[in-house]
Amino acid sequence: MDNNKKTSYETIELQDMKLDFSHDEIFENLKNENCEDFIKIFSIINLEEIKTFEEAQVLFHHLTNHPTPIREAVALKLEEKYDYKFFNNEIKEQFLKSIIDINPNVCRSICAIVAKFDNLKNNLADEIILKIKNLLSEIEQNDKELGGFYEDAQKIRKNHAKNKKLFSLYWYLECLSICAEEKNNSEVLEILKETIKFNDYTIREKTAKILAKLKNKEQDLLQIAIADENFYVKNQVYDKINFED
């Protein structure tokens, strides 16, 4: 009974609050470190336009190191409203961090933003390749010590650190499938030669997705993907199979 009363009082209090903010009020709320999280979320939802570089930076500031509902609201709003004219090294770093946010909805929105802008793809491609290379080096070292990435899938299921690395690799590969260009072909192929070996089929599926988009494919690598035991991996390269062979 008391809980019902509390919920009722909270509802009345929320209804009495002003939640339809003006453009200036939205950014006043976001800049205010003492502003309640739900007020910031309503502010982000009400945002109709990003007018200045400063406003873009305020939004990107909330894309990391903030509670999940705020990060997700910002990512969704940026997917709707972001313009590439608002881009610098600081924002670039926020993009790179948010690609591997712990919330897949944030990752998905950021990848969708990257897909919209060729200039953004060009600016992020080299950095994403470097991130993947570094991550693969870490994974290789971990696998030598503990195993689980390439052979025994059971070993990885209850290991949070390994799952986090796999999650990051998955989303970096997804973004690489958007950014990969002919100029990066050789570096990308070297990455795919490693990721096609993973026991986690989602990593192999992303590998096949990237391979299918490359103009200069390595036939041996393509054959490995075509012969994969998993349907979703095969499906990425299905139209690359020469049925006359």
Q: What this model shows, in words?
A:
The chain is mostly helical. It is 70% helix and 0% strand. The longest helix has 29 residues, at 118-146. The chain is elongated, with a radius of gyration of 22 Å. The chain starts with a helix and ends in a 9-residue tail after the last helix. The model is unreliable at 1-16 (pLDDT under 50).
Write the layout of secondary structure elements.
Blueprint: H1 2-16, H2 23-31, H3 37-46, H4 53-61, H5 68-81, H6 89-98, H7 104-116, H8 118-146, H9 153-157, H10 160-179, H11 185-195, H12 201-213, H13 219-226, H14 231-236
Strand elements, count: 0
Distance between the termini: 73 Å
Specify the oligomeric state. Answer: single chain
- From the spread of the alpha carbons, the general shape counts as elongated
Q: What are its keywords?
A:
245 residues; mainly alpha; 70% helix; elongated; disordered N terminus
The gist of it:
The protein has 245 residues and is mainly α.
